[in-house]
Amino acid sequence: MERAPWRLLHADDKEILIDVDGGITIDGHTATPFPCEITHAAMCDSGLVATWVDHELRLARMALLPMDKQLVDGPSKSELRANRDTSMVAGAEWCHIVDAEPVGLVSTDDKIVFGLWSRGIYCIDSQANEMWRIPLFKVEEKSPPRASEFSTISISGENAIVWARDGTYRIISIEDGSILHEKSIGVDCDLENVFNHENNFLITSSDGWAWEMQDDEITVARKFRGTIQDAVYDGNDWVVISWREDSMLRGSSKERIDLGVQIIKRDEQWQVLDNQGKISPHKSAN
């Protein structure tokens, strides 16, 4: 492929491949509905919900693209500059101006949960109707700079888990936005991402550290070579890709020539999509 892949998603029997420039390929057809790269994307019951941000122009949008019709190209970057207040996402079922940078976006069925920088946590349905909103984490006076900054969101069953950079996490009911529980993982960290399978979590930091947490308790801690790109739970252990390395959380590692982007399952085997667009078995000599 001409441009490096960013994320591979699935809808029914379709593969939706998003590249680093915002191009979306479905069934061999590529379109660029967004004027720049996509920052967050998830599948809901009505299609692909995604965001884009242009920091230079201080613009951000959130839109939903239906998957039952062919995608079309949207405005270019130059057209965006000329029509900054009216440029939306081509072919979108709905598209809205976002007044702060989206930070984290997940979906389940017809619910979409996302955060807005310095604003709060929001839940909308797949028709863009707001269901609830709650404030961000409180900042303690003695906290290190940016410690309580919102980092990412996970979904576990009927709850959303909102994570702060210092390892604080808040469990929220997706149904009504009520805060069910707030706690900390109890480890000094600069939390970057969280992967989960039901109530089993792999918490990762920007310096390569990862912690498995089950039932609010840390069970495994390990330092990887560089930032973790993706991780999935195979029923017994975590399958991990980090900087040019394939690993098992509790097992060995193997170097990878190209940078792994995402772990996918094909033919009952864990495979790695790399930044060249190639797919090879996890821990293979690619």
Model description:
This protein is an all-beta fold. The chain contains one helix and 27 strands. The protein has one helix at 77-82, and strands at 5-11, 14-19, 24-26, 29-31, 38-44, 47-54, 59-65, 94-97, 102-108, 111-116, 120-125, 130-134, 150-156, 159-164, 168-173, 179-184, 191-197, 200-205, 209-214, 217-223, 230-233, 238-242, 245-248, 253-255, 260-266, 269-274, 279-281. A hairpin with a 2-residue loop joins β9 (102-108) and β10. The protein is globular and about 50 Å long. The mean pLDDT is 91.
Could you provide a short overview of the structure?
This protein is an all-beta fold and 286 residues long. The chain has one helix at residues 77-82; strands at residues 5-11, 14-19, 24-26, 29-31, 38-44, 47-54, 59-65, 94-97, 102-108, 111-116, 120-125, 130-134, 150-156, 159-164, 168-173, 179-184, 191-197, 200-205, 209-214, 217-223, 230-233, 238-242, 245-248, 253-255, 260-266, 269-274, 279-281.
From the structure above, extract its key features.
286 residues
